[in-house]
Specification:
About 60% of the residues lie in helices and about 5% in strands. It has about 100 residues and is mostly helical. It has one domain. The protein has a two-stranded antiparallel ribbon with strand order 1-2. Helix 2 runs parallel beside helix 4 and helix 3 runs antiparallel to helix 4.
Length: about 100
């Protein structure tokens, strides 16, 4: 049987999260960077749908559902407690506001 240290060394979650002595999970810098890129994709997708440049093959109801999913994703990610403190969420907050207005 592998030791706890061996398991930890091979655990793919360790690429994205670190754990304190109480088992509390914190995102690694690599995961935070990945999350910022993901947020950027959501911002772009929301903006593109609103501008009529994306999801052109679906009806308005479906577009609003897609925008809603991306708005919720941005809101959830902004709510993370382990941001470094120097992130700029201006574009994400604008996309949330614009997305909510688009959904009505």
């Amino acid at each position: 049987m592998a030791s706890v240290d061996d398991r930890k060394a091979s655990d793919p979650l360790l690429e994205w999260f670190s754990f304190d002595s109480e088992g509390k999970r914190t995102r690694t810098d690599k995961k935070i960077a990945k999350d910022l890129v993901t947020m950027g994709h959501s911002v772009t997708y929301i903006n593109d749908i609103i501008a009529g440049n994306a999801a052109t093959d679906v009806n308005d109801t479906r577009k609003k559902l897609i925008v809603g999913d991306n708005v919720m994703s941005l809101e959830n990610m902004i709510a993370y407690k382990d941001w470094k403190g120097d992130e700029d969420f201006t574009d994400a907050n604008k996309a949330i506001t614009d997305g909510k207005a688009y959904m009505g």
